[in-house]
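Entry under discussion copied across for reference:
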Amino acid sequence: MIDNAIKTDIERYFQEDDLGRNPFYISNLPSETVKCELKLKDDLILSGLPWFVSAFQYLGAKNLEGLLEFEGKTFKKSDGAIIKFELPFNIALTGERIALNLLQHSSSIATYTNQFVEIAKLKNIKILDTRKTTPGLRGLEKYSVRQGGGYNHRLGQTDMWMIKDNHKSFFGGVEQALDFFKSQGGFYTPIELEVHDLDELIQAIELKVGHVMLDNFSPEDIKKAIEVKPDFMTYEVSGGVNLKTLETYLIEGVDAISIGRITYGAPPVDISLKYKK
C-alpha cells in the first residue's frame, strides 16, 4: 500500500509530467512483463526506495515491497550491484523517470550527508540539515539526511522559533526579539538565537537562551565561545562549513553543525534502470 504522505507527492509529480494530455498513447502501451535491473554504479547509500516503489504502485504495479529491504544499504561501485525485479512494460516506461529521479536525488543526499557524519562522529558532533530544501521535495530531502546518519533541524518554521538577524533588526535587538517569540504562547516550542559575535553570545547567556547558533564564527572564535559556555546552553555551528574545512570545526564543546549544502549541493550518484523482455 502506498503511504498516504508519499502518495500526495507522487500524484503531484505525475501531474507535472502531464500524462493526461495524451491518454491514447498511455492506453496503447504494451503491458507485457519486463525484467528490470536497477544498476548502482557509484559508491553510495541507497535511499528513497519508498518513493521509487510508490511511483510504480501509483500506476498499478504490484509485489514491489521486497525492494524496500535494500533501503539504507551501502554499496560500492566495485560491487557492480544490480537489483532485479519485474514490471509491466507500460508501467516501467511511464514511471521510470519520476521514480529514478527521486531515488537518485535521495541517494545523493544520503551519501553526501554520510561523508560529513563519518568525520564529525569522531568528536560526537551531530550533523544537521537546514530549511534550504527544494520546494516540493522537503519531505524526501529531510528523510534522506536521516538515511545518511544526519539529523533534521526544523521541518518547518514553527517547529522551533529561530531568531535571526532580520528579527533582531525589526524588533530592535536580541532581547526584544526574544520577548516577541516568548509571547507567542508556544509552551513546548523551543527558541534558538542566531549570534554573530561574542558580545551577542554573552547577551544570550545573560538572557538564559537554551540554544544558540554560532553563525559564521571562525574556529578561533568558537574556542573563545566554548570558554564561556554554560551548562544549560547548546552550541550549533553554521556558515560555510564544507568537507574540506569540517575538521577545523570539530571542537570539543560544539554540539552540532548545520550544513545547508547537504540538501542543496549534494553531488549526484549514478543509478540507472534498464529493462527487457
User: Anything to note?
Assistant: The chain has a mean pLDDT of 95. The first helix runs from residue 4 to 16.
